[in-house]
Amino acid sequence: MTKMDLTRRGVLKTTAAAGAGLALPTMFTSSAHAVTNDPMGGTVTLGFNVPQTGPYADEGADELRAYELAVEHLNGGGDGGMLNTFSSKVLDGTGILGKKVEYVTGDTQTKSDAARASAKSMIEKDGAIMITGGSSSGVAIAVQGLCQEAGVIFMAGLTHSNDTTGKDRKANGFRHFFNGYMSGAALAPVLKNLYGDDRKAYHLTADYTWGWTQQESIAAATEALGWETVNNVLTPLASTDFSSYIAPVLNSGADVLVLNHYGGNMVNSLTNAVQFGLREKEVNGKNFEIVVPLFSRLMARGAGENIKGIVGSTNWHWSLQDEGSKAFVKSFGEKYGFPPSQAAHTCYVQTLLYADAVTRANSFAPCDVAAALEGFEFDGMGNGKTLYRAEDHQCFKDVLVVKGKENPQSEFDLLEVVEVTPAAQVTYEPNHPMFGGDEASLGECNNGA
Amino acid sequence: MDAFFLQILNGLDKGSAYALIALGLTLIFGTLGVVNFAHGALFMLGAFCAVTLQRLLSLSFETIDETKTDFLGNPLKVKTPYVEGWFGPEIGGSIIDWAVPLSILIAIPFMIGVGYVMERGLIKHFYKRPHADQILVTFGLAIVLQEVIKYFFGANPIQTPPPDALLGVVNIGAPLGLELAYPIWRMVYFLFAVGIIGGVFSFLQFTTFGMVVRAGMADRETVGLLGIDIDRRFTFMFGLAAGVAGLAGVMYGPINPPNYHMGMDFLVLSFVVVVVGGMGSLPGAVLAGFMLGILESFASTTWATTTIPGINQIIIYLVAIIVLLTRPRGLMGRKGVMED
């Protein structure tokens, strides 16, 4: 007969040891999968949050086309597009880390609340592991904040406000598109060459984050040339007729009108300015000039003849002749019958960059993906050599200065590239005052779950 | 001084659109007692009549130009409008150039037809329902109409330029020694609005039909007891109001490129105009339209916005509040209306 030497202390010790032993694998397991929407099956879901209704619906539709094309290429379909020209070669057309890429879409309506709601739904209900898209800085900043809290990566679409990667920068958010500061830095030398260094500028500015930061950037860049900023008038975003804002320009002594407007605002304010004969005017012994710092081909189409000869900047244009741009235009053009917009380009590139970062990190964990994107240098995506700067998650690349074409060959041939401004000329310090200064911080990366 | 007169002109110009839309709204409210929130959509439909005609006139056949390439590097397909093929580049080009004024010819029957169908098919079922129901159904209709337009024409604004002959500016202050360069088309729009308003007033004032309508607006039941089919006349007035809104939209296209949302942009302001002018008062709607247009124009000047930031966004509503508090029936409203 075996004697069982059971004591109270022995039982407690054994129980504690057994408990710890049983808990150990669980602790490691839960740590390994502490990621929001970590894909477990054979698919991975991306969330495309674009304006499908509202004033930017056409841009949203073009963004969605680009996303669908990117998914097709990631899954091995089509001609591969920019996968063939991308300097990183880890993407092989088998999805992301061998998982087939699927997607869900949301409608931002170009409203921050609606955009956050649709992003939340895609994360919580559809299991999206990455959110991307948008055609407005207000929306981008709102959704970026949500993604930070939820612990997913946000790859911004078309957002040009300095704040997106400035004072509102987030560790989980990344922007490929350029910004207001870069527009100013790229435009200033061209404006000097075209119009001289003794000019008086009058600004009309859309009254929200993007307008404010762009105006600040353009005014600073042109004042550094010697230009004087005569006035800056904030116009409500809902404005449709700008005639009462244009009339005071005529008597202000200004000889340049800077329209810090985008979308319908830009189309209407430019149309009104041309109607009032500003372009035929002579002030201070010089021809009156109009500048539209942020151009979009889709908007240029809306402005029609009025865009001819007007100078602005853009993130990318389909007429670029580098291999990446040509590959993308070919893929997009053959699939949809017309060339892609700059919004489509940045969204397509962002999707590929995300997939590439996941693959290089060998992980879907947002913090691993972020680490792979930070400081990542790449080429072959249409903008020349590009750096995803670690400090603020902003891409630094060449910026295009464009002009409305005088004799377009087709309905798409609206802008001509005047100058390709090198990345070095538009680069700034991460703690630049226009970007939140020393107080701006990415915060902590969030894996969620 | 020049800037002062320029803002007056801008105000009259803005006021033209407000007055035309508010005139239609008042006609409908005064005759049928319906609060029509789809009236802005009728303005937008008018503008898209011009867009449609411009596109129809620009329908093209393609020829291949082997010397040029498109964005994919294929030989360029050159589009030539059929009208240029049929009538030659000069006459064909002129026809396309005058698309906006020409579209008035199709907008009048089309918009009256739309108004008739709207009234007979939908609105008449809501005559005896509360105003809240009328607002909901007409607002819903407005959203449906704008979504239909967006489906076919997209969300971005579409240029509908004026004829080349009416492009540019004219110095209307020259006889007074002033520098008052003003866009020709905006002057045309103002004169057009004055003409339409004059036409509607003349129709109501000097025709038998108009006299019966005015009598019906004053006392519908008594007119009905005289054996006059006032409902049929009121249905026509709905069509006429739709026509006025449509024409206002057609001619507005060259001022600001039409988009599917333009009706909503004007709707609320036009209702404020109606309330300020006096519900059911046609002269009130016109007066308030021009007055608020001028006020809004001055409120957008640099002096005004720096003195009172944001005044440009609230001026119209501020006036509406003051009018409603001090004279609830509006500037020219009938005594008793909205004063209960």
Quick synopsis:
The complex is a heterodimer of chains A (449) and B (340). With 449 residues, chain A is an alpha/beta fold.
Query: How would you describe the oligomerization state of the chains in this entry?
Result: heterodimer
Residues in helices of chain A, as a percent range: 25-40%
CATH class category name of chain B: Mainly Alpha
Shape of chain A: globular
Which structural class best describes the helix and strand composition of chain B? mainly alpha
Largest sheet of chain A: 7 strands, mixed
CATH architecture term of chain B: Orthogonal Bundle
* Termini separation of chain A: 53 Å
Residue runs with pLDDT of under 50 for 5 or more positions of chain A? 1-6, 18-32
Overview of this protein structure:
The complex is a heterodimer of chains A (449) and B (340). Helices cover 39% and strands 18% of the residues of chain A. Chain A is an alpha/beta fold. Chain A has 2 domains: 43-178 and 318-397, Response regulator (Rossmann fold, 3-Layer(aba) Sandwich); 181-314, Rossmann fold (3-Layer(aba) Sandwich). The model of chain A is unreliable at 1-6 and 18-32 (pLDDT under 50). The mean pLDDT of chain B is 90. In chain B, a hairpin with a 5-residue loop joins strand 1 and strand 2 (75-81). Chain B has a single domain (11-55, 98-326), classed as ABC transporter involved in vitamin B12 uptake, BtuC (Orthogonal Bundle). The termini of chain B are far apart. The radius of gyration of chain B is 22 Å and the shape is globular. In chain B, 68% of the residues lie in helices and 7% in strands. Chains A and B meet through strand 7, helix 7, helix 8, helix 9 and helix 10 of A and helix 1, strand 4 and helix 11 of B.
What layout of secondary structure does this protein have?
The complex is a heterodimer of chains A (449) and B (340).
Chain A: H1 8-32, E1 43-50, H2 57-74, E2 100-107, H3 112-124, E3 130-133, H4 137-150, E4 153-156, E5 173-175, H5 180-195, E6 200-206, H6 209-225, E7 228-235, H7 243-250, E8 256-260, H8 263-275, E9 282-283, E10 286-287, E11 289-294, H9 297-303, E12 311-314, H10 323-336, H11 342-361, H12 366-373, E13 376-378, E14 386-388, E15 395-396, E16 399-404, E17 415-421, H13 423-426
Parallel strand pairs in A: 1-2, 1-3, 3-4, 4-5, 6-7, 6-8, 8-11, 11-12
Antiparallel strand pairs in A: 9-10, 12-16, 13-14, 14-15, 16-17
Helix pairs in contact in A: 2-11, 3-4, 5-6, 8-9, 11-12
Chain B: H1 2-32, H2 39-57, E1 60-69, E2 75-81, H3 82-97, H4 99-121, H5 131-153, E3 169-171, E4 181-183, H6 184-206, H7 208-218, H8 220-225, H9 230-252, H10 262-277, H11 282-299, H12 302-307, H13 311-326
Antiparallel strand pairs in B: 1-2, 3-4
Helix pairs in contact in B: 1-6, 1-9, 1-10, 1-11, 2-4, 2-5, 2-9, 2-10, 4-9, 6-7, 6-9, 7-9, 10-11, 10-13, 11-13
